[in-house]
Amino acid sequence: MKKLLDLGVLLTASVALISCSNNTTAGTDRVADNKACRDNPVALQVLGSGGPIADDHRAGASNVLWIDGKARLLIDAGSGAFVRYGEAGIDFADHDAILLTHLHGDHASGLPALLNNGAFANRSVDLIIAGPRGNDQFPSTSAYLDSLIGKEGGALRYLHPYLEENDALPRLTVEDIATDKSGLQTVWSDNGLKVEAIAVHHLDVPALAYVVSANGKTIILSGDQSFLSEDFIVTLSKTKPDLLVMHNAITMADGQPRGLHRDPKSIGETAAALDAQTLLLTHHMQRAIKAQNEVNAAIAESYSGPVLLADDLSCYPL
Predict the structure, then answer these.
(1) Residues with Cβ < 8 Å from 311, sequence gap 6 or more?
(2) Residue 230: how many CB atoms within 10 A of its CB?
(3) Does 294 map to a domain?
(4) Is residue 2 part of a domain?
(5) Is residue 134 one of the residues assigned to a domain?
(6) In the chain, fewer beta carbons within 10 Å around the N or the C end?
(7) Are strands 243-247 and 279-282 parallel, antiparallel or unpaired?
(8) Which among 270, 176, 264 has a CA at the least distance from the CA of 230?
(9) What is the domain range of residue 129?
(10) What is the pLDDT of residues 182-215, one digit of tens each?
(11) Based on C-alpha coordinates, what's the Rg of the chain?
């Protein structure tokens, strides 16, 4: 019996040692990624690279744009983004805008925690929150904010000073962007940073993609979109982004509601049509990850540029 107990202690210690070693390596990688983001004039950091299913380590969709060492833009705030936000060492006071592509939970459910965090940031200027207008099934971005932090009926109404003229919290300026228009819509422009939005098709969900220009670099964040997003390609065909960020959600063989996500072949065609210098795949779902070789092969039928796979906290300097 003593030998069995000793063996159990040894195995437990070994597992603990392996776990600590792996965590140390991961921590080192994250510190390196965070430093790379701060040390480059323009860099995109993926806070959450996951999708709607909790089947691995990934947080829900969220990205941050670093410019000259400051986290100027937050794009989406999916579940788990709060933890990655802290690990990245982001200061809420540095944001110029928070951009939401659409109001699915894996893209927007982390926002309340980040706003609560922002109440401690000593921020002194207003903050833009932009996202889609609503429809019969989804609220507008302003209605979503009101349901969260509105003074009358908001679930977290103690944060209602965000929506009022006061000295307690910085004012949130909410912009509802039309999803029934073609072409680019300017969201914000200042100090060498420009943000434009374009409506995309994501089944019945009001949804947007964003085009960000900073220090001579261009990033397109496609959000979730289907092959029916024709205006997206037509309008942006001459953009030639330095980085195109697209979802890695389905394989060629997956059955899904028609018009929800682009399949890998369509992603490759889109990257080629936009002449993207680099394609970054994120918003991973396990069905795509497990067939990544097939996914990459389908993309490569049209697109010959580099294809990168995002992980939480990975950084992509431009």
Answers:
(1) 46, 49, 58
(2) 11
(3) yes
(4) no
(5) yes
(6) N
(7) parallel
(8) 270
(9) 39-309
(10) 999 999 998 889 999 999 999 999 999 999 999 9
(11) 21
